[in-house]
Design a protein that fits this description.
alpha+beta; Rossmann fold; Immunoglobulin-like; 5 domains; 8-stranded mixed beta sheet; 8-stranded antiparallel beta sheet; 14 helices; 38 strands; elongated
Length: about 725
């Protein structure tokens, strides 16, 4: 039904001004005709002037043609129900019996009761779900939809012309698409209110949530593996609990923790694997009686445990006590194959079992070592050369090996300053005191905050016990001439009393170097830790050093090829860096050919890429990719030129966008309702919301306006008439 009429912006002063203006022009026209005589062309020209004046006066009143169109069809009310996985959260309190139910159950019950029934007399009702998880047997990582409230509102707006209002029943936890504010703005422009109902509590319910566990892809037998974990305590009290790690032999590790009230807590548990193979482990936090959710107190992960023979090279000058006991500790370690090189001053190299007569002078000879210990030896005749230093640098940075600096009283490591090895050293040395500093009284090493629970310094099961062990260890009588730690390093232990302008002297310092690691041990008295306890702490410390430094080199390997990736436990969307070392048939680092990587997921996703050779001639090839799916990925690294290949598996974490246990995001729903001039309510007020929809007025007629006063064609017509008038005046000889 249409209704058309004109509207004008009139006022007394406009009418008065228009009448005066038109009367003045009329008087001037009459006087002009009287002076010139009753000429028909003159009368016509004056008539044109009066028409132009009348049109200008008409424009002054702003004429507009209005057409009102009234809808005759029934209005539509859309009901949008959130069907995402977050609706499984159990936090809706039933008024009748005070029982707690899931958001989904509450919504299902209300739908079955047809809560919108009172609206059906006035409106057509459309009920629709949004963000429903797809029904598929594919891995969850590949079917991880989020909640897109904006798309749901947009879809409702575009599907129904007669939409009068929308009831949005959701927890507001949108995590996909644009902000719902975008769709709310469109609703406001079309005068369609959104009535939102917050399904769920907007506060956390009492809960203890084990949020994450970080585990490496593999571990070595007898290696101390640190498993960091994060726990969120949403109880109003501190929780004292025993975190347990269950594996193939039952409870394999545990740790007493105190989780602060209403806070996030981070710690780690140390696992010493005893059973070889691929095993599944579960980390558990005890369920508290106040908790509302009991299914988030544990995390399960898989880890491959195997035996590896780690190859170690120890280079020193004189057989000091530290060297002798280190040699014995590594020789008796069943997981270590140790070789030693003693470069005696002005003497032939040392000889005997496990001894070599010269430093490995080529890349292929040196690349087999996982860790190199560099004792009281430096650059000089009958010692190391600058070429050896370059080789060690390449071994660590390119092939991911470890390098341990063990200075001694001869002060020969001071000669490394200014070389590439000096740059790799994690501390600055005082060259004015090359022989170090000796004491007549015993001095202790003191662990730093970072060193209390670091893998290298963990000599007990818990950080508190570990701190006590280090305080009881026999002290030292000498330390290296250390000035300070370099930037980017991690200081694990300092001298308990000695200090300078930079603070306490750092004596146990580590840092990353390219793909490998570097450790500086600023005293030669670790062998004294055997006093009263034999090899308990001494063997354990050096065994942990070797395994920690060699860890990534043994992630995956076959004859003639080593491969590792970082990070070892990536998440979907993270960049994974690939690192392959390839040797030819003669054992030399492979160069000049092509190395490829093929990554495939269990869902069928496949990516192939070419690894790029690194400079330096170490046979190292690198690349990277971004996993698009979670779950287990198969990786094949292949070099057809030399017939080398290695296979391994990569486990990609896939954090779910839809999580239960989190509070409803009421603020999102309030904002949508406020923008659209609707109403935001709780589940208890659902009937009131339905009543508010029933009270909405009928559709306002659609108004279309044709603004004649500002239309360009109207202006052109007036200008043309004015042009005709002035042209006629010229023709008539009137100025």
């Amino acid at each position: 039904m249409n209704n058309t009429f004109w509207t004008f912006a009139v006022s007394p002063w406009r009418i008065l001004l228009g009448c005066v203006f038109f009367a003045s022009l009329l008087w001037l026209s009459i006087q002009s005709i009287r002076r010139s005589g009753p000429d028909k062309w003159l009368i016509a020209n004056e008539a044109i002037r009066l028409i132009v004046a009348a049109l200008l006066l008409f424009t002054l009143f702003r004429p507009e043609l209005v057409r009102l169109t009234k809808r005759s069809d029934r209005p539509v009310v859309g009901i949008l129900c959130d069907a995402s996985e977050s609706m499984e959260t159990e936090d809706v309190l039933a008024i009748e019996n005070a029982a707690v139910r899931t958001r989904k159950d509450w919504l299902t019950e209300r739908r079955e009761g047809r809560f919108w029934e009172s609206l059906e007399e006035k409106y057509d009702i459309v009920v629709d779900d949004f963000s429903r998880p797809p029904e598929t047997n594919a891995p969850s990582a590949d079917t991880d939809p989020g909640t897109d409230i904006n798309a749901a509102l947009d879809g409702m707006l575009g599907s129904y012309e007669g939409l009068r209002a929308v009831l949005l029943l959701s927890d507001g936890d949108w995590n996909e698409g644009k902000s719902p504010v975008s769709a709310a703005t469109k609703f406001r422009m079309r005068d369609i209110p959104v009535f939102s109902v917050v399904v769920g509590s907007d506060e956390f319910l009492p809960d203890v949530d084990l949020q994450s566990v970080s585990a490496p892809a593999y571990g070595l037998m007898d290696e101390h593996i640190s498993l960091p974990f994060t726990v969120r305590n949403r109880l109003a009290k501190d929780v004292k609990a025993t975190v347990t790690l269950e594996g193939p032999t039952g409870v394999e590790a545990s740790k007493e923790v105190v989780i602060p009230a209403m806070a996030e807590f981070q710690s780690s548990v140390v696992l010493v694997p005893r059973v070889e193979g691929d095993h599944e482990y579960t980390l558990k936090v005890p369920v508290q009686k106040e908790e509302k959710f009991t299914d988030n107190n544990s995390k399960t992960f898989k880890m491959s445990l195997r035996k590896e023979l780690l190859k170690v090279l120890v280079v020193d000058s004189v057989p000091r006590w530290e060297y002798r006991f280190l040699h014995n500790a590594l020789s008796r370690d069943p997981g270590v194959d140790v070789e030693c090189l003693l470069l005696h001053p002005q003497m032939a190299p040392g000889d005997g079992k496990n001894y070599v007569q010269a430093f490995p002078g080529t890349k292929e000879q040196l690349s087999g070592y996982d860790v190199v210990f560099l004792g009281d030896v430096g650059i000089g005749p009958s010692e190391l050369t600058s070429t050896h230093a370059e080789l060690l640098k390449g071994l660590v940075e390119q092939q991911g090996s470890g390098l341990v600096f063990l200075p001694g009283m001869r002060g020969r490591q001071a000669t490394l300053t200014g070389t590439v090895l000096g740059d790799m050293m994690p501390v600055e040395l005082d060259r004015a005191r090359q022989s170090g500093v000796g004491y007549t009284r015993e001095s202790k090493l003191s662990l730093t905050t970072r060193g209390k629970d670091h893998l290298l310094t963990m000599l007990a099961q818990t950080p508190s016990e570990n701190y006590s062990v280090w305080k009881q260890l026999p002290g030292v009588y000498w330390h290296a001439p250390v000035l300070r730690a370099k930037p980017g390093t991690t200081v694990l232990a300092v001298h308990a009393t000695a200090r300078n302008q930079h603070g306490r002297l750092p004596l146990l310092v580590t840092k990353p170097a390219g793909n490998g690691k570097v450790l500086f041990m600023g005293t030669d008295s670790a062998w004294r830790w055997r006093r009263g306890v034999e090899d308990t702490y001494h063997y354990r410390f050096w065994g942990q050093v070797v395994r920690w430094m060699a860890h990534q080199r043994h992630l995956a390997h076959q004859e003639g090829m080593r491969f590792f990736y970082s990070p070892e436990s990536p998440s979907r969307g993270n960049t994974v860096f690939l690192h392959a070392t390839v040797f030819d048939a003669s054992g030399f680092p492979f160069q000049g050919g092509e190395v490829t990587a093929r990554i495939s997921s269990r869902s069928g996703w496949v990516q192939e890429l070419k690894l790029e050779p690194e400079k330096g001639g170490w046979g190292v090839f690198t690349g990277s990719f971004i996993p698009e799916h979670g779950g287990t990925h198969d990786i094949l690294i292949e070099c057809e030129d030399v017939g080398r290949r290695v296979r391994t598996q990569l486990r990609v974490e896939s954090p779910k966008r839809e999580r239960t246990g989190r509070p409803a995001r009421a603020g999102v729903l309030r904002e949508v309702a406020a923008i659209t001039l609707g109403r935001c309510s709780t589940t208890e007020e659902l009937d009131e919301v339905v009543g508010s929809v029933n009270l909405l007025p009928e559709f306002k007629p659609t108004e279309h306006r044709f603004r004649l006063w500002c239309h360009p064609f109207w202006a052109v017509a007036i200008i043309l008439l004015m042009g005709v008038y002035w042209s006629n005046r010229k023709l008539l000889g009137m100025l």
